[in-house]
Write a structure and sequence with these properties.
Layout: H1 3-8, H2 10-14, H3 20-32, H4 35-53, H5 61-88, H6 93-176, E1 182-188, E2 196-202, E3 207-213, E4 222-230, E5 234-241, E6 248-253, E7 262-271, E8 282-286
Antiparallel strand pairs: 1-2, 1-8, 2-3, 3-6, 4-5, 4-7, 7-8
Helix pairs in contact: 4-6
């Protein structure tokens, strides 16, 4: 055989589809030492093997191997059938050349199918892997964003609390330094033994504050309310405050109405939002005078 005819059969040899005279001719040609054909045959075999194996991560290796075996079996059956025809009907040189070209084309198409399938499998696997990584990154970023928002909200609440405490402290200091300062001590009732309170009022600054300690935390849906008991109007609401935890609470309040004389002070537990007159239990009260 000529060198070009040997090269045309390399694709079939890579798939083990050569038999008889053709396989013998190729083996003899390679033994002579044709580096070009030997390198090309190795390249065909490596491409078919490596790219076929690349399909395994994408799905079913058994199905891939079975598919390749079916194609090999079909090719071998076709080869045997053609040889039987050749024995009963000898081929002319032109027909033999056409048959060889057909087999070469079939072998090349088979290798091309394996190559394209392997490349498609690689692309699919990479796409799946990239999508999984992307979804994991999105989930991580989302968790980090939620945590950052939670920390920001907590920090904002803490800042507001500190600002409110500072404001109350400054206001208390202003009232305590007022020349017309008047203090009223609040004593506990049986409802909250161990509690205590102090009301500071400055008529000149029109400001008032209440400081309490020992009161139970405010129940849900309730609020503590400070009252002035005046000679002219009786109970007059003076302010609302909440107790979140045991400790001292300072809250702003309203001084007694102008022109009215406060005889007593009291703290009661009322519905959230407060009421216009006392309705709940009394927790703290001042003494007469």
């Amino acid at each position: 055989m000529e060198h070009q005819e040997i090269k045309d059969m390399l694709a079939l040899a890579a798939l083990d589809l050569l038999e008889g005279e053709e396989a013998y001719a190729l083996t003899e040609h390679l033994l002579v030492g044709c580096d070009e054909c030997d390198a090309e045959l190795r390249a065909f075999r490596e491409a078919a093997a490596s790219l076929a194996m690349a399909l395994e991560p994408a799905g079913s290796p058994a199905r891939i191997l079975a598919h390749l075996e079916e194609r090999l079996a079909f090719a071998q059956t076709s080869t045997k059938g053609l040889r039987a025809i050749r024995r009963s009907h000898p081929l002319t040189p032109e027909a033999h050349s056409g048959l060889t070209r057909w087999r070469v084309a079939t072998g090349i198409a088979t290798v091309a199918f394996i190559t394209v399938s392997g490349f498609a499998g690689l692309l699919f696997n990479r796409a799946v892997h990239s999508r999984v990584e992307f979804e994991q990154q999105i989930a991580t970023r989302d968790a980090q964003l939620r945590e950052s928002r939670s920390r920001l909200a907590l920090s904002s609440d803490q800042v507001q609390t500190l600002e409110r405490v500072l404001h109350d402290r400054l206001r208390l200091e202003q009232i305590l330094l007022a020349p017309d300062l008047r203090l009223t001590r609040l004593e506990p009732t049986k409802t909250a033994p161990g509690s205590a309170g102090l009301v500071a009022v400055s008529t000149a600054t029109r400001a008032a504050l209440i400081q309490v300690s020992g009161l139970p935390p405010t129940p849900s849906g309730k609020t503590y309310e400070l009252w002035w008991i005046t000679k002219e109007s009786g109970p007059v609401k003076a302010g609302l405050f909440q107790v979140q935890a045991p400790g001292t609470v300072i809250a702003a309040a309203e001084p007694p109405p102008t022109g009215q004389h406060a005889l007593l002070s009291a703290v009661t537990l009322e519905p959230a939002g407060g009421t216009n007159s006392p309705t709940g239990a009394m927790y703290l009260k001042s003494t007469a005078g």
